Amino acid sequence: MRAFLYLRRYAQAWDEVLTYCDLNTCRKKYLLSYFGEELAGDNCASCDSCLIEKERFDATEITKKIMSAVARTENRFGKNHVIDVLLGKSNQKISINHHNELSVFGIVKDFNEDELGQIILELLRANYLMKSVGKYPTLSLTKKGAAFLQGEEKLELVKPQTEKAIKKTFKKGDLDYNQELFGILRELRKQLADEANVPPFVIFGDASLQEMAYYFPNDQTSFSAISGVGARKLEQFSQVFLEAINSYAKDNNISPVAIPGKNQNEREIKVAASPQYYLKTKELTQKKIPLERIAKHQGLAVGTIINHLEKMIDAGERLDLEYLKLPKDRYEKMKTAFAECGDERLKPVFEYLDGKYSYDELKLARVLARS
Q: How many helices (H) and strands (E) does the chain have?
């Protein structure tokens, strides 16, 4: 059971990463919300999403088509299957379920697969659709979505960005990258994306691949300096991409190019230093040090320390946190709220309790329940 819960939470965390990659809205607002904080307004004026002006369009008709497809497939299928139905694709899964006989089969002619995927993500974020948790997540209508489908309300969404539009964002004078290697890396990206059942840009964007095809990084340190490569992607994808890059470089006698304006040593230290915080948190909790003092000692927020504890427990660490237990009456109320709302997200629990408990307190209660 513990292993199952761990895998479920891991899948949830990975889904959150993919959602973050796909955002058309403010990334900073999303991150703050994830950690239980809020950003005043919808534009931080600093992340890539907020710095690029996005065109909006009347999404009323296409939204109702998508919702109809979700409803007529009985809320039992995932995003890709719903898109296939809307586009009228013929495959075994559609035939077995007789979805080629539905009125919504092939009803969409003015959007392609990628564009429909972007619209569905927008509808998920706007709470018109919801996605189940698990290895094979399914789409279903929310109450808000069902009301919209039956009503006359109009809806505007961010216009899906087409491949043509994306290409236009690159200016003259961009990197004169190796076109052949770029093609090889795109094929590799597509293969990985197909295996993970995600859009290719979730693995790496074209800009990242272009940098790889220009700078020819040959180890993890230089690969980490490529734009779009964070600690998680470094761990997940560096080996397979470096093998392709180094193989091509060797066959064509090409040497790596230094990446200007990026201190690779500092980047490497930053990536490697993170586990030290976890080790220190573990050490201090073993000594029964209060969370406030642990946070002050490391120059971090209390919420971050609680995140450390949660991730260590999810990874199988055995921690004695009895000394951190909360007042019984408050803890029981929070446990009841988690039982009603689930423990994947804090915001529903926060709202269920009418904001009477802080996010840090809720996070700590969740940690204690899992330990």
A: 20, 4
pLDDT one-digit tens code per residue, 172-219: 346 788 999 999 999 999 888 887 777 777 788 888 899 999 999 998
Closest CA to 274 of 316, 230, 313: 230
| Spatial distance between the Cα atoms of 77 and 63, rounded to a whole number of angstroms | 17
How much is the pTM?
0.42
Which amino acid, one-letter code, is at 105?
A: F
Task: Please choose, from the candidates 127, 134, 114, the residue with its C-alpha nearest in 3D space to the C-alpha of residue 33.
Answer: 127
Ordered structural domains, the chain, with CATH:
1-52 (no CATH), 56-166 (1.10.10.10), 169-251 (1.10.150.80), 274-370 (1.10.10.1390)
Burial class (CB in 10 A: 0-12, 13-18, 19+), 194: exposed
- What is the Cα–Cα distance from 157 to 24, expressed in whole angstroms? 10
Closest Cα to residue 259, out of 296, 298, 224? 224
